[in-house]
Amino acid sequence: MSTAPSHPFRTLGIVGTGAMGRGIAQLAAQAGLEVRLYDASSGAVAEAQAFIDNLWTRNVAKGRIDADQHAKYRGRLHEAATLDALADCDIVVEAIVEKLEAKQTLFSELEERLDEKAVLATNTSSLSVTAIASTCRNPERVIGFHFFNPVPLMKIAEVIPGVRTAPAVVEAVEALGQSMGHFTARATDTPGFLVNHAGRAFGTEALRLLGEGIADIATIDRILEDLGGFRMGPFALLDLTGLDVSHAVMESIYHQYYQEPRFRPSPITGQRLTAGLLGRKSGRGFYAYVEGQAQRPALQTPPTSAPLPVWISPENGEARAALAALVSAAGWPLDQGDRPTQESLCLLTPLGEDTTDCALRQGLDPTRCVAVETLSGLDKHRCLMANPATVEEFRNAAWALLSQDGTEVSVLNDSHGFVLQRVIACIVNVGAEIAQQRVADPATIDRAVELGLGYPRGPLAMGDHYGSRRILTILETLLAATGDPRYRPSPWLRRRARLGLPLTTPDPF
User: Fold this and answer.
1) Cβ–Cβ < 8 Å for 370, 385
2) Which of 63, 166, 292, 397 could cysteine-pair with 305, CB 3.0–4.6 Å?
3) Contact 466, 441 (CB under 8 A)
4) Other CB atoms within 10 Å distance of the CB of residue 291
5) CA Rg value for the chain
6) Ramachandran region, residue 378 (left: φ > 0; alpha: ψ -120 to 50; beta: rest)
7) Which residues belong to the active site?
8) Degrees (nearest 5) of the Cα angle 479, 484, 490?
9) Residue 496 belongs to what H/E stretch?
């Protein structure tokens, strides 16, 4: 029989009763703590108490808790009319405005009132815990305790020690988070901590693809949802969070890391923010919304084509076999020569390359070459990519062939790494660099990203799923082709890929 982790806290104070504060209060009361709620705004505490109580009432109606539990939970919520009323708290969690000076001032005021052993926790999502603690007399008791919205449903809390936080405080707060039913991800006090740091690649690389004209918004989203397994594409996600939030986070982390190229934002979000295209909250973002539903354009109708002989590059044996089976099922003739005939459509399976480089490197006629994405198989969604010299007849033939069984096909402009390869490789690379910097251990990185970002896998497990050597090849090819240091592979990834080790393999010391 499992028991809740042991922690020394009995009374927890909350300063700031907005969405985050009330969510933390709900969990704390359910975990058996006495909770004291303070907010500088008149009526805010009563509103928060009513909101939480309504949630519990609904849970009773749904049979998730009984009336006795409801009464116990409700009896643990208390209003603190002043900061003085928090004096007997063992821990106080602040959930106020994201401004450094405001948090520093609050903690200085709390130090005057609380016992010297009480813990001061900040729910900051972007500010340095060390900086918040720097004006405290006792920075050893200050720690980051970062939840995600909605707090009861997002089963993760980041535990972030400042440079001077005492180890006993870290252990106690980790146990507290676990007693609340959350996975606690211990991370170092670095910009973006763990989850927001790991999320830098998904949106920024998609924006880069959009900026390069490789595909439109809906196509990029569909590819990453269908082939990548993401719950929503990057542009749908940006619309959900709102550009007023997302753009600021992109710029903040980029500048906090002294213009690290891996985190480089796109001018697209700044322009759209200025135009007021915030997303769902404004009724229009990357998509227009009607009654809350994104209006995505209809799929393109595939062209028709008479069957052509099809030659498939032999460079990727597994992909070649899958494409050969598709050609056979369609009833098209398969050109099995070492070199294609002059009439053959040439299908290429590049990894990190664009169609142009792949065709020329193999000494093929680029006018008849079309590349096919094979990183994630050919079952759910197919992507083809012509080059600027590809004749329309051959592009349309490839399109007709790939769509003949009703599978959706996306047609891209020539790009190193298609869409899926680029985004996946960047996600894995950022995750590997987080491990390299010891922001968190590999298992914590993967679990935190799954819970905090909703990715189908954590970044390190994602790299192992697709093959770390293939990810390394994609990045090295992108770096060589573009010269952009955003694609430089992390040493963590490079070493493990070359040694044939899982990316979750920790260093021995």
Assistant:
1) yes
2) 397
3) no
4) 4
5) 26
6) alpha
7) 125, 146, 158, 196
8) 60
9) helix 491-499
Cα angle value 476/478/479 (rounded, 5°): 65
The pLDDT tens digits of the residues spanning 392-407 come to 999 999 999 999 999 9
The residue count for the chain: 509
Element containing residue 412 per DSSP (H, E): strand 409-412
Q: Give φ, ψ of 221 to 5 degrees.
A: -60, -45
Share of the chain above pLDDT 90, in %: 96
- Phi, psi at residue 212, to the nearest 5°? -85, -5
Neighbouring-strand partners of residue 412: 385
> What is d(CA 270, CA 273) in angstroms, rounded to the nearest whole number?
5
Spatial separation of the C-alpha atoms in residues 502 and 457, rounded to whole Å? 14
Burial of 292 (0-12, 13-18, 19+ CB in 10 A): exposed
Q: What's the whole-model pTM score? A: 0.94
Residues 6+ apart with CB under 8 A from 408: 222, 226, 299, 381, 382
CB–CB of 420/214 below 8 Å? no
Digit-coded pLDDT (tens) for 60-106:
999 999 999 999 999 999 999 999 999 999 999 999 999 999 999 99
User: CB of 129 within 8 A of CB of 144?
Assistant: yes
Residue whose entry in the numeric block shows the structure tokens 């704390």: 28
- C-alpha 331/C-alpha 45 separation (Å) is 70
User: What kind and span of H or E run contains 225?
Assistant: helix 217-226
Q: Write out the two tokens for 68.
A: 């006795």
71 HSE (CA, 13 A, CB side): 3
Q: Is 276 left (phi over 0), alpha (psi -120 to 50) or beta?
A: left
Asked if 65 and 59 touch (Cβ cutoff 8 Å), the reply is yes
Question: Per residue in 29-45, is it b (16+ CB within 10 Å) or e — as a string?
Answer: bbbebbbbbbbeeeebb
CB atoms within 10 A of CB 437: 13
- Asked if residues 22 and 52 have their Cβ atoms less than 8 Å apart, the reply is yes
Per the CB < 8 A criterion, the answer to whether 90 and 9 are in contact is yes
**Side chain identity at residue 212, one-letter code:** E
